[in-house]
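Hi R.,

Here's the chain you asked about this morning:
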Amino acid sequence: MKKIALINGKVYVERGDFRQALYAEDGVIKLVGSNEEILAAAETDCETIDAKGKTVIPGLNDAHLHFLFVGIGLSRVNTMGCKSLDELVERCRAFMAAHPEECRHGMFSMGYNEDLFTEGEKRAPNRYDLDRISTEVPVILARACGHIAVTNSKALEMLDIKPGPLPGGGYPVFDENGEPTGVFNEAAYYPQRLLPEYSVEDYERLFMLGNRHAIECGVTSVQSNDLNKIVGNREDLKTAIDNVYKDGRADIRYHHQICFYSPEEFEKACASGEYFKIGDIGNPKMTNGPLKLFSDGSLGGRTATIREGYRDDPGNYGVSNIDQKDLMEFCRVADKYGVQVCTHVIGDKAIEDTMKAYESVLHYGEAEVNPCRHILMHCQITDAEMMRKIAEDDLIPCYQPIFLDYDMHIVESRCGKDLCSTSYAFGTADRLGIHQSFGTDSPVEDLDPFPGIYCAVTRKDKNGWPEGGWNPQECIDVYTAVDAYTAGSAYQEFAENYKGRIKPGFLCDLAVLDKDIFTCDPMEIKNIRCDMTIIDGEVVYEREDR
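And the predicted structure, written out as tokens:
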């Protein structure tokens, strides 16, 4: 029986309640109290961990990301934060020169954002820009949002693209002369078919890259949509994830969010029991989770669906990624089999349509209106009435507050000032008693949780703009933000009775921080680092210079 005593800490129990120490056996917390109480309860064969006065919070739980793609991103050229087209091209050329074997079949990366270009031409890249990287192999670069991609001419030649929608949704963009520009809207991963598929062993290696990055950030649980419609071989990926848990290699707790191609396929999987077997390998660190759907696109790419259309692109109302009839049918099947649904919704039209589908299967008049805890994933552009209905229907908005770092610079031009004032409504959600969860949607953003907590608390970008915060009425305090990232995310996965708090009976998943997140200057929250990560009562990461 593994026994640990963590002492000399500032251990966060709940708002206003801090203790010095805790004692855990076999990965479960048994006692929280003073140093004296814990040392008196600890047995002689107990390992003692000195927190050295540091703040200890529950392990962070990223409520939505794409964990495999975190690992993939770490193995590829980093295109995030490029300040110009030239920098984007040069980074890719340098990576290709330094890693010829990895790029011999082509290059794929995700992360550029043309709205961040401050030098040279301030526009999105096209095929001719990517031809500067290579004309010999396909080059495919996905925008940071993951909903738009651009390819070079070689890729277009290999794909033989024609006008019209693509299989699985989305469409290629053509110029006024009828020539493809290399841009693919809502089909960012369609061109990736040109590159060799990963093997099971590749998936395992990439998964473990993500595992390492997560624990370095104090993230102990992830709720991840990797079994989706863009993965080439879902069975190989599922096998790889099973393998790293069967043999005990993975530290992180992993909760599946799962896509299906049609309501019929989903019902067949539920009726046969195959859906419920996903994650059922006897390792409690990996669990089965909700059905994942996509309603619209991204705000940055102007493909999120907006009821009044885009102010800065008249006539554009966004791109719907699912037929309303199919959305309703997915929800009907989910309700029949008691399955949770989480739907990607960014624009107010997508949120409205998805709420209608959810409301068609909610259990009004019963003790629990939303027993399946259906989720509004991202839930960015909302009005006051929509937030009131979310509270009434007991839906869960799963927010990515780090999105504010970029979005606050574009959302008013996209949606107008009035709608801005009621969007990214963390404060309203808290005041209405809505269960909210936090995550990053990594690799859209890095999975480090602390910049996101900073954005939720300050409503400022990473540079500290604007003074006073963007729509500061939607700020939340540090306690609420930490709770959304721990207890709130645990509630989303039906784990609130054993995960997300430092209390007796809860899992001993902890993050020891280098700064006191509760008392430091809010501007410093984004820079917090994790000194030590504990999962199941085991130290899985310790920063060397702590």
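The chain has a mean pLDDT of 95.

Let me know if you need anything else.
M.
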